[in-house]
Design a protein that fits this description.
Length: 379
C-alpha cells in the first residue's frame, strides 16, 4: 500500500518525495486539487473563529448560511433549500426519509448497479446483491429498475415515493444515460407525483463540465444529493430540495433529521471557498477540451472503450487481472488509477479539474506503457 506524506494540486507525494499524478482525485473529491490555497485559508480562518458550537440548526452559523446561499444561487430556483450532513450516505438517508415523509408513500425505486452509500438505508438502494446479502433484512419496499431503460419507467406509479438515481452512474463503470431517457424519467415522476432524487455526489461541482450533471439533460430533480467534491477535501454532504418539500421535516414529528456534525462550520467554510474557486477560476471552462484530449490520447489496442463525460471517465479493459496489474504498473510509474465497485474490468479516470494538458498527456503515456508492458508479460 502506498504511503503518502503530502499532497498539492494534482500531485500526491511519498516519503521519498516521489510524485504521483492523482488521476482519481481521492474518488471524485479533490476537484479543485489537493490543498487549494483558498480552501486552506478558509479552513484556517474558520478554525480561528470557532469549530463546533452545537447540534446543526441550533444557532445561526455564518459558514452554513453563506454556503447554503451560494449553493442555491447556482441551482434552479425550485431547489432553494439545503440540508447539510456529514457524507454522501447520510445525504441519501436524509433524502429517502424526506421523500417518504413528503409523499406519504413507501415504495422506493433504485437502479441496478447503483451506489448511494454504505449505511443501512443507502445499502438498501444499492443495485448489487453481492454487497447486500450479508446485511439482510434491509429497508422494505425497495424495487430496482434498469438504468437507461425506458420501458422500466412504467414501474414508477402512484405508490412510488421516489426514484433515486445517479445522474451519471459512477460505480457501475461510468454510464451516461440518454437525454430522451432522462426527460421521460422526469415526466413519469411528475405524472405520478413521485419525487426524483438525483445523486450528484460523484458528478457534482463541475466534474462533467457543468456544475451539476443534470444540466446536460435539461431536467431538474426534486431532491439533489451532494457530497465528495463539495467540501474541497473536507467531509460534508447535503440534500437539497424545494423549501415546501424540506419543511415537512420540521414537524409531526419535529426534528425529522438530526445530525450533530452535519454542516460543520469548518467544512462549510471550506465548501464555500471550493465553490467560489470553481466559479471564479472558471475551472469548468476547459473540461470539454480535456475530455477530448484524454480520448485522443487513450488509444491503444488493449483499450476497448473510453466511456463517460468530462473528467468522469473510464477505460474499459478485458479482465480484473489486467486492471489490477495495469493499475500497479501505473502507480509504480507515478499515476494513480483505480477501478469501480460494480465494474472491476475498467480503470477509473477522474483527475482534479485543474489538471493541465501536459499532465494529461504524460499520465496517458504512462497508462499506455503499462498496458503494453502487461501485454508483453502475458505473452
Ligand atoms: N453516491 C455516490 C454516487 C457515490 O459515488 C458515493 C461514494 O462513492 C456515495 C453516494 C456515498 O458517499 P460517502 O462515501 O460520502 O458516504
Amino acid at each position: 500500500m502506498l504511503h503518502i506524506e503530502r499532497a498539492e494540486g494534482v500531485y500526491l507525494y511519498g516519503p521519498d518525495n516521489k510524485s504521483y499524478i492523482d488521476f482519481v482525485s481521492g474518488f471524485a473529491v479533490s476537484n479543485v486539487g489537493h490543498r487549494h490555497p483558498k480552501v486552506v485559508q478558509a479552513i484556517k480562518d474558520q478554525v480561528d473563529r470557532y469549530m463546533h458550537l452545537a447540534v446543526y440548526g441550533e444557532y445561526i452559523q455564518s459558514p452554513q448560511v453563506l454556503y447554503a446561499a451560494k449553493i442555491t444561487s447556482v441551482l434552479p430556483e425550485s431547489i432553494n433549500s439545503v440540508y447539510f450532513v456529514n457524507s454522501g450516505a447520510e445525504a441519501t438517508e436524509g433524502a429517502l426519509k424526506l421523500a417518504k415523509r413528503y409523499t406519504g408513500r413507501k415504495k422506493i425505486l433504485s437502479c441496478n448497479k447503483a451506489y448511494h452509500g454504505s449505511t443501512h438505508g443507502a445499502l438498501s438502494v444499492m443495485g448489487n446483491e453481492y454487497y447486500k446479502d450479508a446485511y439482510q433484512p434491509l429497508l422494505p419496499g425497495v424495487e430496482f429498475i434498469e438504468f437507461n431503460k425506458e420501458a422500466d419507467l412504467l414501474k414508477i406509479d402512484e405508490e412510488t415515493a421516489c426514484v433515486i438515481m445517479e445522474t451519471i452512474q459512477g460505480e457501475a463503470g461510468v454510464r451516461v444515460p440518454d437525454q430522451v431517457y432522462m426527460q421521460a424519467l422526469r415526466k413519469r415522476c411528475t405524472e405520478t407525483g413521485t419525487l426524483l432524487i438525483l445523486d450528484e455526489i460523484q458528478t457534482g461541482f463541475g466534474r462533467t463540465g457543468k456544475l451539476f450533471a443534470f444540466e446536460h439533460f435539461d431536467i431538474v430533480p426534486d431532491i439533489l444529493l451532494l457530497a465528495k467534491g463539495i467540501g474541497g477535501g473536507m467531509p460534508i454532504g447535503a440534500f437539497c430540495a424545494n423549501r415546501d418539500v424540506m419543511s415537512v421535516l420540521a414537524d409531526n414529528p419535529i426534528l425529522g433529521h438530526i445530525t450533530t456534525f452535519g454542516g460543520h462550520p469548518v467544512c462549510c467554510a471550506a465548501g464555500l471557498a471550493t465553490l467560489s474557486a470553481i466559479i471564479e477560476e472558471d475551472m469548468m471552462a476547459g473540461i470539454d477540451e480535456k475530455e477530448a484530449l484524454l480520448r485522443s490520447e487513450l488509444i491503444h489496442p488493449a483499450i476497448k472503450e473510453v466511456r463517460g463525460k468530462g473528467l468522469m471517465l473510464c477505460i474499459q479493459l478485458d479482465s480484473f487481472a489486467q486492471v489490477e496489474e495495469v493499475s500497479k504498473l501505473c502507480i509504480a510509474q507515478g499515476v494513480i488509477v483505480d477501478w469501480f465497485l460494480h465494474c472491476d474490468t475498467a480503470l477509473r479516470i477522474a483527475p482534479p479539474l485543474i489538471i493541465s494538458h501536459r499532465e494529461i498527456i504524460s499520465a496517458c503515456n504512462i497508462i499506455k506503457n503499462a498496458l503494453t508492458e502487461y501485454e508483453m508479460r502475458a505473452k
